[in-house]
Amino acid sequence: MGSSGSGTGRHRSGRYIEAERHNKKWKERNVTSQVSVKEIKQFLSDILEPRKLVKVINKRENRLEKMKSHHKLRMKGFQYKDLSKRHKNYLKEQAKKMFTDEGDQLFKMGMKILQQSKSQKQKAEAYILLAKAADMGHLKAMEKVADALLFGNSGMQNVPAAIQLYKSLAKEGSYKAQNALGFLSSYGIGMEYNQAKALIYYTFGSAGGSIMSQMILGYRYFSGINVLQDCEVALRYYKKVADYIADNLEKGGGIPVEKVRLAERPENLSSNSEILDWEIYQYYRFLAERGDVQIQVSLGQLHLMGRKGLAQDYYKALYYFLKAAKAGSANAMAFIGKMYLDGNDAAPQNNATAFKYFSMAARKGNAIGLHGLGLLYFYGKGVPVNYTEALKYFRKAAEKGWPNAQFQLGFMYYSGFGLWKDYKLAFKYFYLASQSGQPLAIYYLAEMYATGTGVLRSCRAAVELYKGVCELGHWAEKFLTAYFAYKDGDIDASLVQYALLAEMGYEVAQSNSAFILESKKAKVIEKAKVYPMALLLWNRAAIQGNAFARVKIGDYYYYGYGTKKDYQAAATHYSIAVDKHQSAQAMFNLAYMHEHGLGIAKDIHMARRLYDMAAQTSPDAHLPALFALLKMETLHLLQDVLFLNNVSCEQFTTSWKWTESDHTLSLYWDVLAIVLIVAVLIVLLRNHVG
Prior knowledge:
mainly alpha, about 0% strand, globular
């Protein structure tokens, strides 16, 4: 395991120089080229013109007919012995050629460029190759091009063309096409809004192996969306998807998910904590180069995982970790150990190097380093398998609160590796790790609830946990692409991507889709369907615990957006938002309804109390609540004065009731009253200063 000090030093310095060279190369990289993105998009639009798509589809269908006829000839060859061997071989060669033609090569080249692309231009070039492969009738290329046309990849959104391709692909049994057609039917995007058809498409897609269809059906059966609510059926669908995700996670796969809420204030959206702003990133780089160790480690982690909107870049990650490790950072040492344990382009897999860096970090009491040593002993990487040693290191790391170590402890007790099985202790450690979001711990907790292992069986608890694991699938990448499309002003592309995620049960995507719809900027959905669809999505988000969505539903019923005006229903939803979420906005709205007796009994005392609660709950509600209280108290003071003086009391009351009966006039009256109060306050303040 060991090596000479000078050899280790040369190895370390060589890696550092290589990482630094890559970092400099990245800084100096010129993104300009001879072919512009605009020209590429024009080329793609020419290839994917609807008339040419018909030719592509016809070409594909003609090839299928030829294959059938060749198959018939081969069958005749078996029946009639007079067919020569040469002709049989010729038929075999022709069939083989159809599967290994130029289209297949173009598809592979296009996919390789697409996976390695770091710029829009490179992605557009990849789609040119995929479009050419699709033009030759390549099935997978057609699926990729259809997805690009639907979701607006590289700015080439064309929903009618996408639908045309999907329908052709569905005839050939493409489960991806079945899923896409189900999604489009469920929203009425480019197709008839038909939930029954959507369910059929999803069912066929699921049967064909579509993970996304299975997740959608799991969500629908769990929530009772256009089907009878059935937890057990939902459990079966969600488990299939969760098994797939957990398998990827165990192999080191899985992606972090950044979920930006568009409903936040515009000034917060540009500097959202989920996405790292480019100017802030440049500032962090400046600090890292100046020797800020904490920033170096943070940037290393961001590039290692591909977080906050930054691309995954192992060379940059290693560059920053090495700088921080040189300054004595135990975290950086541990992360370098992890990179060598997993293996990548910048740090090829090397157990000895991983052991060295984990040991350096562990000697400083670092939890990640201790966990790393535990992994080496658990799997026998570079050292003999030793469960006792692994257990010792996992315990030390778990005591320091490292969730991955807590999961490993739980897994050892669950599986009985090196000790007796103990499901209660397994549950304890899985639960501790799950509180920090450790995905595999959540998965095994779901397994325990689903089977009743070590805990009372609970279908609902299992489904909710499986759902959390399922939401880590690769499709969650669309949160980033949808967000950037929205920021770039491509509203339709953003909406379609958020809408698909919403259909899969992501609460953030449901509220984002509703937010975009009610902005009335999207064109892919008919105007008449905008508010009803937005209300449906706000409702789904509210059921999943979104307080803002619950208030929105109340607003829709109050103003009659996408439904009939219903003050009673509005008051009900505002009450839920107050009771469950302590929403200041809901308190204010409910106070106003109590003040004027809209949908609920008129109750001035309750209105006063709710206005006070709103002001105490949120600083933003202080001023509106103050003015509302002043207005309410002023009006009641006027009523009392008029009543005591017996001057036109009946006339005032009649006028007041008439004003309340017209909602528009009531709004104007409130504004007028507030303006008068403000004017009086200004006069009093001036007199006081004078």
